[in-house]
């Protein structure tokens, strides 16, 4: 597992065109779930964000608002806004 592979797979999450090729996106998500289930995504033009790709992890995070924060930016927004 190399850094470039992680960055490429994570970068697909921040690229709207990635969602057109569902098979490629699903392959990247499966890879991330196995090798980097929580990954920092830092791709222009959006603000950096943490991507959590495992179902159980997402549920655990959603249930614990004392520990996890999705504010003030809970959506993907351009870095300059």
From TrEMBL:
Annotated keywords: Plasmid
GO MF entries: heme binding; iron ion binding; monooxygenase activity; oxidoreductase activity, acting on paired donors, with incorporation or reduction of molecular oxygen
Name of the protein in question: Cytochrome P450
Coiled-coil ranges (or none): none
Organism, scientific name: Mycolicibacterium arabiense
InterPro entries: Cyt_P450_sf
Gene3D superfamilies xrefs: Cytochrome P450
């Amino acid at each position: 597992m190399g850094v470039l592979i992680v960055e490429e797979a994570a970068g697909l999450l921040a690229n709207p065109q990635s969602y057109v090729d569902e098979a490629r996106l699903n392959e990247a998500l499966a890879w991330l779930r196995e090798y980097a289930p929580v990954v920092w995504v830092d791709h222009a033009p959006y603000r950096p964000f943490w991507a959590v790709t495992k179902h159980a992890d997402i549920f655990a995070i959603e249930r614990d608002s004392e520990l996890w924060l999705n504010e003030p930016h809970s959506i993907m927004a351009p870095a300059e806004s």
